[in-house]
Amino acid sequence: MKEMFKINQFNLMASEMIALNRSLPDVRLEGCKNKLYPDNLPRTSVVIVFHNEAWSTLLRTVRSVIDRSPHTLLEEIVLVDDASERDFLKRPLEQYVKRLEVPVRVVRMEQRSGLIRARLKGASISTGQVITFLDAHCECTTGWLEPLLARIKLDKKTVVCPIIDVISDDTFEYMAGSDMTYGGFNWKLNFRWYPVPQREMDRRKGDRTLPVRTPTMAGGLFSIDRDYFQEIGTYDAGMDIWGGENLEISFRIWQCGGTLEIVTCSHVGHVFRKATPYTFPGGTGQIINKNNRRLAEVWMDEFKNFFYIISPGVTKVDYGDITSRASLRQKLQCKPFSWYLENVYPDSQIPRHYYSLGEIRNVETNQCLDNMARKENEKVGIFNCHGMGGVLCKHKQNNQSVSSEFATYQERCKQTCQHFSTMEMTEPIA
Ligand code: LR7
Ligand code: MN
């Protein structure tokens, strides 16, 4: 079991002992189970990209789509092989999918391209009115598809995600995800789940079966109208391998006039891994930083500086040519990032108003406020200045009270920088 775990960074042995068409619990809210949807929903193509995926997880994804979607709504499944190096993913896969009740097409990237360009390829050869993207280790549950398509039918500018349930990487147990979390991001531009704020509960008048407007999507599981996907500029094909595309498409959707939702009546499971099993040609950091820089440069205006100042090393990474993405933003007349923060993500950790950005240094001792590699909500410390980023403070004009947790911290701030009267730590970085 331990040996096999290393191949895909999940318990492959457990996965192989579980039927490809296993039953799953119905984890939907009661109020979701008897909702009615229009008859003439748009049909979807399901696009699944993979690189060296395990047979059992890939085919369980495919089987769950076929077994739990009305076939009238399923145009086809498109599997995009991103230059995998496993023999069973070649002819055996093609042979296997031929027998399935729904058309399944297998296309191959000529060379390792990353999930972004692989998805672009899958989208371009697919034909359904809606395109639904899934990771290659998912399982769809009863009734997952109809509520997604119904939102798109209502407004093609709505991009929708299911609730992402957790399939244990250890036991493959299926655990319901929460309808009380939505997508955000931190200063390092990592996607993160956060509690759905009260304003969003209020907007839905407390009805948890109604879709949640989410600032960002996790990235792997969503449905989008084909024409709208084109209109808003699909993906940034200049992004490599993995990362950044999820926030990029999220910012773009909101800033350019669309809506991004989590449809709480739709549940799809995903195997969450703690490590990536595959290579990042050119280096993991290089690639993710490049993608994030493209995202920041095109969409974040001056707020990109929060990202740069917290991770100064990032600015050394070349991000290539972004002129076509910048002109896309121009052409679509997309709103500024400040609008997004103000209207879509007011609970963001990035402050909308700030007076300065940078380190807080004691010029006498050359020591700086430092997160001391501690976790969020733990106290900061003082350490020799290293210029590698870390804690950022924003100071307020008015004398806002700070919690006792921050008292020591505030005291230190005062000692270090006399002219900062009141401060608030916006995010200690892990
Ligand atoms: O080079 C690659 N080529 C590929 O085809 C690298 C990956 N892939 C495939 C891979 O086989 C898989 O099917 O792309 C898919 C996603 O890769 P994962 O499963 O390694 O990614 P992840 O689940 O760790 O990452 C999340 O963030 C990514 C950022 O680029 C993508 O948006 C993933 O789709 C996304 N997954 C989800 O949103 C599922 C929920 C995770 C959370 C939170
Ligand atoms: Mn995944």
Task: Describe the structure in your own words.
With 430 residues, the chain is α/β, with parallel strands linked by helices. The chain has 2 domains: 1-271, Spore Coat Polysaccharide Biosynthesis Protein SpsA, Chain A; 354-425, no CATH class. It contains 15 helices and 17 strands. It has helices spanning 2-8, 12-17, 30-33, 55-68, 91-98, 115-125, 145-154, 198-203, 226-231, 245-255, 284-299, 304-310, 323-331, 337-343, 404-416; strands spanning 44-50, 74-81, 104-108, 130-134, 138-140, 158-167, 174-175, 181-185, 191-195, 212-213, 222-225, 259-271, 361-362, 367-370, 381-384, 393-395, 423-425. The strands form 5 sheets. The protein has a 5-stranded mixed β-sheet, with helices on both faces. Strands 5, 6, 7, 10 and 12 form a 5-stranded mixed β-sheet that branches. Strands 13-14-15 form a 3-stranded antiparallel β-sheet, covered by helices on one side. The longest helix is centred in the C-terminal third of the chain and has 16 residues, at 284-299. It starts with a helix and ends in a 5-residue tail after the last strand. The structure holds ligand LR7 and manganese (II) ion. Manganese (II) ion (MN) is lined by residues 135, 137, 220, 270.
